[in-house]
Specification:
Chain B: Belongs to the ERD2 family. The complex is a heterodimer. Chain A is largely without helices or strands. By secondary structure, chain B is mainly alpha-helical. Chain B has one domain. Chain B is globular. The chains are: A little secondary structure, B mainly alpha.
C-alpha cells in the first residue's frame, strides 16, 4: 500500500 | 485518488478560474480581498515545498504549479495591474491575528516535530481561516458581486468535497488524518452562512446583500 499520508493530496 | 477528491480539486480549479475571469473581464478587483489571496499564496507556498523533491503524479505536479502560479498572478492583478480598483479600506482584516495563533498551533499540534511537517501543518491550519478576510470584506461592503459569489461557492465546495474524500478514504483505505479533517471541518463551517445566502439568493437570480 502506498505510504498513507495526506501529502498526496493538494 | 477518488471521485470526491477529483471533484474537490476541479471545484478548486473552477474557483480560481472564475476569479481570474472576473478580474480579467471586468478589469477590476472590486470586492476581492487581497489579504485572503496573500494568505492563500502563503498556504500554497508552504504546502507545496515538496513540489521539486517528491513526485507523486503528473496531475499532482500540474495542479500544484497551476495553483501557485495563479495565486501569485492574482496578487499581481490586485496590488499592481488593477490596483486602482482595489478597495483597501474595506479589506481591513488584521491577518496577524490569524497567522500568529495558526503558527503557534502548528508548533504545538502536529504529527511530527520536523520542519517540513510543521510547515505543512501550518499551511493546513492557515488554509482553514484564509477566507476570513474575504468574508469580512463582504460583511463590511454589505454585498458581493454575483461572480464573486460563484467564486466563493466553488471555493467552499472544494474543501467540503475533501471532507467526503476523507470519509471515503477512512472506509475504503482505513486512512485518517485528524489534523487535515479538523481543519477541513472548520474551513467548511466558515462558509456555511455564505452557502445559505448563496442557495437562498444567488440560485434565484438575486444578489447577495447582507443585513438587508
Amino acid at each position: 500500500a502506498t505510504e498513507q499520508s495526506s501529502k498526496d493530496e493538494l | 485518488m477518488n471521485i470526491f477528491r477529483l471533484c474537490g480539486d476541479m471545484s478548486h480549479l473552477a474557483a480560481i478560474i472564475i476569479l481570474l475571469l472576473k478580474m480579467w473581464k471586468t478589469r477590476s478587483v472590486a470586492g476581492i480581498s487581497g489579504k485572503s489571496q496573500i494568505l492563500f499564496a502563503t498556504v500554497f507556498t508552504a504546502r507545496y515545498l515538496d513540489l521539486f523533491t517528491s513526485f507523486i503524479s503528473i496531475y499532482n505536479t500540474c495542479m500544484k504549479v497551476f495553483f501557485i502560479g495563479t495565486v501569485y498572478f492574482t496578487i499581481y492583478l490586485i496590488y499592481m495591474k488593477f490596483k486602482a480598483t482595489y478597495d483597501s479600506n474595506h479589506d481591513s482584516f488584521r491577518v496577524e491575528f490569524l497567522i500568529v495563533p495558526v503558527g503557534g498551533l502548528a508548533f504545538l499540534v502536529n504529527h511530527e516535530f520536523a520542519p517540513l511537517e510543521i510547515i505543512w501543518t501550518f499551511s493546513i491550519y492557515l488554509e482553514s481561516v484564509a477566507i476570513l478576510p474575504q468574508l469580512f470584506m463582504i460583511s463590511k461592503t454589505g454585498e458581493a458581486e454575483t461572480i464573486t459569489s460563484h467564486y466563493l461557492f466553488a471555493l467552499g465546495s472544494y474543501r467540503a468535497l475533501y471532507l467526503c474524500n476523507w470519509i471515503y478514504r477512512y472506509y475504503a483505505e482505513g486512512f485518517f488524518d485528524l489534523i487535515a479533517v479538523v481543519a477541513g471541518v472548520v474551513q467548511t463551517i466558515l462558509y456555511c452562512d455564505f452557502f445559505y445566502l448563496y442557495i437562498t439568493k444567488v440560485m434565484k437570480g438575486k444578489k447577495i446583500s447582507l443585513p438587508a
